[in-house]
């Protein structure tokens, strides 16, 4: 089912190093998040991205800063990081603090940063795709060549809202790239019980460009998303990409994963860890040395520790903040 | 100077003027091009402003509302039509969970200056799924500015403000008023959002009413033996309770009429807000009147039965004396 | 774009006669409806089926009485008739009277007759497909081999609810036949601006059986829907059929159809009228004579007149009826 | 005989018993099989009743709710779960326009004996789209029977009745109560729908409260210097106003606490119903308490700020004396 990963490195060394570094950043940030959540420092839900790092980083690297990202599925933090939101702002938001990206109003499921063109995530899975179409429309109306990339999980593709977004994007040939992160599970429901051969087939009736790639290979995702973005930028319309990944972590922290086959799970952890595989590939191809990687890890660990410090030191919002940002006031014409 | 135009013409003028005024305004929805909208509200706009600014969409309210949200966040000012207000539910997640909450959830970093408009209300035999008044649903979801239109004057002035406002606004004309006529200034004007207006002065009883119910309340006022003050809330969220309270402090009596379903509709909330804060101003209990707790039936006599009539309003007023 | 209609008759003579008769019944009933609406006797909206009669009759004939029909699109009355609802009950419902199928509570958009397994129509276009999946599920749970047929217009396929219904039907291989009546228009929006080549392609990603047929040919629709129903009955799962028809009437009565090209419209009326074409075919193949058809028409006219009389004489509901049927009371356990 | 079980166990027992009792009952929703539901509410059911009766669905609330409607009309008795009550909006057309209206629109010829259940309410840091109390939305749509659960006893008895009732019922447990314990009879029992219950007798003031707010109201009652009567409406539509009215006729004072958003929420309607009909029984204005007009924020201190606390309820009670 999974094709063997190619052992070549098909990007330049700098890019390759950045890929590994960014995947490690996600991984280390999330490991820390898990600890902090376990210690009760982080409220609410925490969904981690283990196994998706290659997909997130490949996609992020394919985008320009000016391209929008509308996050879907439940693997969120890796995408926020890949879109360039600073770690301290993300961590402070997970903590629900005033210096968080959303001033503590949103939390893990809602990190948004319009300045960095991160639309954020609709916590109702599958409600981010039509907004992504709207973001692309706005860019088109404004005459830019920026595109909108939007992700969704295998589970989310069952929602009609996803299909409507395909209809709308195709209708005006808008620059939208739909990335389906098929990690084989919607919580406990296996994607293999869905009828399509590849979930990217959902683009076929619309005559969209579609592709299914091994999403645990950062370079493959980078290539496929780059191609799709280029088409979109050139006015060739939307694409649908299935990024086949594995969820190497529970659905959310606390999920006992009773529904998973243990042997298969172990095999996947062994074979499909995007970071481990890429690390080995870079070592084999002499792009990096063990020592360089250790330095990289150490640096990131420092960054992450700083992010945690930042979050911890950021104050809880004052109670009155609960009533802010509901409306922009005065309303038009009010009080004149 | 003023002239008489219809309510639908007022809506079309508002759209036309805002499309002309601001390049960031774009209009989309089902059948807004040649067809001109179900009630004629977008007639001529596509021909004048072109297909980039006035766009027919495929048939999906989720698509329309979701695209409007993204477009607004993306920096333009979309005005999106749903063919019937009932279809707010058809785009339920967008309308209840996404649009009104995104600005808040982002801690104010994200703006959604969009307007959705949709004709509401009963009276044309359109049945249970094309006749509802939904401002109770929308007003119960913080984040929406919910605006209704009662006259051509209101329709134009409020719609223009809705389009210019930086919040998500849901604008609700009433389909039974489409062909009613009224005075509208020749000059450009806007009307403030979030402010109720005392439409008729009176001393004895305050009647709160909007849209079709406003007109029926006026008829009722003419029938009864009392000096009726009529307050038109215009905006249902946020609600200008102060204007209503001030009126009740004067009259001592309150009737709230609205076309939403009575149970958890607008009426009880409005009445209770005033009662709770102005209890000792009341000379009689408050009276609420709305659609009884039934869907809107097709049969015209049944439809008229469930829709508050001028007589029912008059009886409600009289019951307070 | 339209293939030429075959001139053979491929069903037995009795069936052929019933096809023509049933199409005429729809046509004559609707002509009368139009008149009665024009005279102000019928409240609310009226959407007519002109051009869809072959599709409705072919589909209806392919079904058993025990199969469910969930009506979609805006061409309704023809489908009610094809499912066997008596004309007087339909007409009385259009009038909003107590003897209507729905006691006047529903009207033209909501004729429902569970005894005849007509689920009725969701007046929000595209909300009937998931209920159809549920109807099929109920039959399966009860162990019957009945199927659910559900129609939708070309416009309605843009709603995600339709796509979700495909996902659910495919997920359990339920006996559902999705018929898309593509009449080229969603009110004023042309289907040709949608991206699929055939709207039945929407079934392809689900690996469903799909077919696109000339829906103005009653025999073609009969065959295609019969095949799909047989598959469904045999446990071979759902199908999607595109029935390509023409809307030879306004969207609803009152629509000025400013958006249509007149010459093309005239051509379609000339070439694609399912009744006229079938009439000629039966005459050419000596299945019926002019005289027999005239008798048929006269009989139907009588039936329709009776339906109108029935509707006119049926009383308006009493005001209190407005408060009936909201709840079945007492609620469970209430007042005990 | 009784025993102590948790609220979630009570829900699971109700499902188990009804699945055992009636072959027409089937249960479906996201992750109801091995996973056992987000709060453990379907644990063990799939193993016991099999995959034909307990079904994981693909991820679509429209699919779930729409399929439930069809299955009910088709003659079985579906019980469908939405993972969060907020997702009522995600199946907006089904929940607002289709399910509750089809029986009425068909003139009573079509029955829809389905139950949808979904955990509602705030308090677990789930944010604006997973924390809402939606009985104000649902109760504003005639046709739904809307039921909430306050204790394990209520949860089991009301859920069983919901499943057996021939109307569409929306059953709303509260997620903060999942692990609370309470006495539940060993024997089978059901509780009546449509009937409020006086949970605590008192002479001075009537407090109406349900779900989490009931428990906070009880705390508040212990804090204040007044003899508080607590009425639990259980069913929000239809609403048993008579039981509340009777209490107020005795106490002369009314506080309505609920977790819906105050503007067009349940509180104002309930208070006003009593005020309108029992005006002269009131010794003080009514008092309503709910979530202020904001979405539910993530930050725990902010979330607690907007969620009515026992202190806020106590202050509300005291303000009437
Ligand atoms: C509309 C909606 N339904 C259900 C949920 C609950 N839920 C959260 S994540 C999830 C599974 C999502 O699966 P998938 O789309 O494959 O994304 P993944 O978790 O695998 O990243 C579900 C059912 C939700 N958040 N939104
Ligand atoms: C959800 C929804 N959106 C919009 C409408 C208004 N409307 C009624 S019929 C129609 C067009 C339907 O087109 P199509 O599905 O092709 O069916 P047809 O009318 O051609 O039979 C529209 C937009 C509706 N009834 N429901
Ligand atoms: Mg997944
Ligand atoms: Mg059509």
From TrEMBL, chains B, D:
Alphabetical UniProt keywords: Oxidoreductase, Pyruvate, Thiamine pyrophosphate
Gene3D superfamilies found in the cross-reference section: 3.40.50.920, 3.40.50.970
Cofactor(s) required, per the database record: thiamine diphosphate
Record InterPro entries: THDP-binding, Transketo_C/PFOR_II, Transketolase-like_Pyr-bd, Transketolase_C
CDD domains: TPP_PYR_E1-PDHc-beta_like
Record bears the keyword Oxidoreductase: yes
Annotated GO biological process: organic acid metabolic process; sulfur compound biosynthetic process
A Gene Ontology molecular function term of the record: oxidoreductase activity
Residues that span the membrane, as ranges: none
Keyword hit for Transferase: no
Domain (Transketolase-like pyrimidine-binding): residue spans on this chain: 5-180
Name of the protein: Pyruvate dehydrogenase (Acetyl-transferring) E1 component beta subunit
Lineage of origin: Archaea, Methanobacteriati, Methanobacteriota, Stenosarchaea group, Halobacteria
């Amino acid at each position: 089912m999974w094709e063997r990963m190619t052992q070549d490195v098909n990007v330049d060394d700098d890019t390759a190093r950045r890929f590994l570094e960014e995947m490690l950043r996600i991984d280390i940030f999330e490991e820390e998040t898990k600890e902090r959540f376990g210690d009760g420092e982080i409220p609410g839900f925490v969904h981690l991205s283990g196994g998706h790092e290659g997909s997130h980083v490949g996609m992020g690297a394919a985008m320009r800063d000016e391209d929008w990202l509308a996050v879907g599925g439940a693997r969120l933090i890796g995408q926020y990081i890949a879109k360039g939101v600073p770690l301290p702002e993300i961590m402070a938001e997970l903590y629900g603090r005033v210096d968080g990206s959303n001033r503590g109003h949103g939390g893990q499921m809602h990190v948004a940063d319009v300045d960095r063109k991160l639309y954020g995530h609709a916590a109702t899975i599958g409600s981010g795709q039509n907004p992504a179409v709207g973001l692309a429309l706005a860019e088109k109306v404004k005459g830019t060549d920026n595109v909108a990339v939007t992700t969704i999980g295998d589970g989310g593709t069952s929602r009609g809202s996803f299909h409507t977004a395909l209809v709308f994007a195709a209708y005006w040939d808008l620059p939208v790239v739909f990335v389906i992160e098929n990690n084989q599970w919607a919580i406990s429901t296996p994607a293999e019980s869905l009828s399509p051969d590849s979930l990217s087939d959902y683009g076929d009736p619309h005559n969209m460009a579609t592709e299914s790639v091994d999403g645990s290979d950062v370079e493959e995702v980078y290539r496929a998303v780059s191609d799709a973005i280029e088409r979109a930028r050139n006015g060739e319309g939307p694409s649908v990409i299935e990024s086949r990944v594995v969820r190497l972590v529970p659905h959310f922290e606390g999920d006992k994963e009773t529904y998973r086959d243990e042997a298969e799970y172990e095999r996947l952890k062994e074979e499909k860890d995007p970071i481990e595989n890429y690390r080995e590939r870079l070592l084999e191809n002499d792009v990096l040395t063990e020592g360089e990687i250790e330095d990289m890890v150490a640096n990131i660990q420092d960054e992450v520790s700083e992010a945690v410090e930042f979050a911890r030191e950021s104050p809880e919002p004052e109670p009155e903040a609960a009533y802010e940002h509901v409306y922009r006031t005065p309303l038009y014409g009010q009080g004149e | 100077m003023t002239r008489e135009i219809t309510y639908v013409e007022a809506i079309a003028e508002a759209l036309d003027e805002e499309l002309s005024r601001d390049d960031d305004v774009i209009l989309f929805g089902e059948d807004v091009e040649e067809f001109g909208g179900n009630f004629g509200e977008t007639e001529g706009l596509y021909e004048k402003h072109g297909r980039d600014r006035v766009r027919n969409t495929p048939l999906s309210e989720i698509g329309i509302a979701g695209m409007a949200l993204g477009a607004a966040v993306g920096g333009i000012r979309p005005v999106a039509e749903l063919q019937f207000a009932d279809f707010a539910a058809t785009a339920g997640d967008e309308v209840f969970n996404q649009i009104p909450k995104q600005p808040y959830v982002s801690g104010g970093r994200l703006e959604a200056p969009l307007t959705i408009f949709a004709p509401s209300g009963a009276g044309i035999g359109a049945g249970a799924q094309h006749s509802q008044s939904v401002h109770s649903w929308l007003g119960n979801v913080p984040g929406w500015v919910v605006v209704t239109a009662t006259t051509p004057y209101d329709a134009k002035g409020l719609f223009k403000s809705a389009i210019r406002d930086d919040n998500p606004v849901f604008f609700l004309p009433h389909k039974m008023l489409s062909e009613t006529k009224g005075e509208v200034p020749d000059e450009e004007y806007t009307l403030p959002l979030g402010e109720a207006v005392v439409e008729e002065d009176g001393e004895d009883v305050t009647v709160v009413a909007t849209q079709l119910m406003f007109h029926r309340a006026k008829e009722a006022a003419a029938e009864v033996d009392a000096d009726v003050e009529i307050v038109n809330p215009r905006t249902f969220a946020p609600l200008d309770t102060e204007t209503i309270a001030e009126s009740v402090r004067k009259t001592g009596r309150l009737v709230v009429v609205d076309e939403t379903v009575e149970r958890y509709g607008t009426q009880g909330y409005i009445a209770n807000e005033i009662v709770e804060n102005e209890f000792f101003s009341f000379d009689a209990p408050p009276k609420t009147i709305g659609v009884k707790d039934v869907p809107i039936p097709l049969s015209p006599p049944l439809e008229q039965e469930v829709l508050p009539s001028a007589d029912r309003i008059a009886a409600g007023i009289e019951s307070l004396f």
